[in-house]
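Weekly puzzle thread! Below is a chain. First person to post its structure in token form gets bragging rights.
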Amino acid sequence: MMSRYQQGANLERRECHVAISGGALLALRGAGSKSYGKYKIDTIFVFKDKVVLTQYKKSGKIAKRDLVALLELQRKVPEFIEIRVGTTSETKSPDELLPEIFGKQPEKFLKT
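Winning reply:
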């Protein structure tokens, strides 16, 4: 039986292969997704016209504090950098996840 770490690592490796097959010039996997700093990023894909940073969640659900951190990061980086959260079957931007995680008035939870 594989550990959760092994399952997550295998998913991230598969997604790296999918990204390369889909035209990515570079696909990187951050082991353990314990990126330095407060932003947890599992994979980085570099395409000709964009960079995609992804945090994978087996359940598709993300903790509020992690979502807030990714929203903060999204607002600090150039527009050609896309931040995605989710499973392999479906990823969303942090902004798309706001209502799911925080309800009808997510703005009151976010620092501006």
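Puzzle host: Confirmed. Bonus trivia for everyone else. The CA atoms of residues 68 and 111 lie 9 Å apart.
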